[in-house]
Design goal:
168 residues, alpha/beta, Rossmann fold, two-stranded parallel sheet, 4 helices, 8 strands, 21% strand
């Protein structure tokens, strides 16, 4: 019964968000059209009449395929959150994607998805990275420890959040 009410709340939240001029296109953003549900980032931006777009990208491994296209539309993107998957086996691809995006955006937050495991070197296999358009207003304070209490929450509530520590 609890699961039923959770699903009702999700549906209510979905319906509340997609009111008025907000539209949901049930498509997979990809670097090419292979399936009837596929759409390119170029097609997405053809539909949008704004230069202040915020992207939420969680496309289960396909995020790496659209990094170059994000660079092409960076002038219209104010910020984004990208969930990067398979960071361990795709470390070189992940590092190249981050380097490419940092030409246009600053990383303003990271959150380790505790639903995914850890790579052999202890880095989370799934990272949620929040970017803001460059330039930021003044120098940003760098955090040395994550997650942020009160802001971050574990993806899997039954497990503790992964803790990260950075040295600058």
């Amino acid at each position: 019964m609890r699961e039923f009410f959770r699903r009702v709340r999700v549906l209510q939240s979905y319906n509340a968000f997609f009111r008025g001029s907000v539209k949901h296109f049930q498509e997979r953003i990809y670097n090419r059209v292979d399936l009837p549900v596929d759409v390119t980032l170029e097609k997405v931006f053809e539909r949008i009449d704004s230069n202040k777009v915020f992207l939420k990208i969680d496309i289960e491994g396909c995020e790496y395929r659209i990094i170059e296209d994000i660079g092409r539309f960076a002038g219209r993107i104010s910020g984004m959150v990208i969930e990067f998957h398979d960071i361990g086996p795709l470390r070189l691809v992940f590092n190249a994607a981050i380097a490419r995006l940092q030409n246009f955006f600053e990383i303003v937050h990271l959150h380790a998805n505790n639903y995914g495991g850890l790579a052999a070197d202890g880095v989370p296999e799934v990272l949620e990275v929040t970017f803001a358009k460059k330039p930021l207003q003044g120098p940003a304070k760098r955090r040395t420890e994550l997650p942020l209490p009160g802001s971050d929450a574990p993806n899997d509530a039954r497990r503790a959040d992964y803790k990260m520590r950075f040295c600058f």
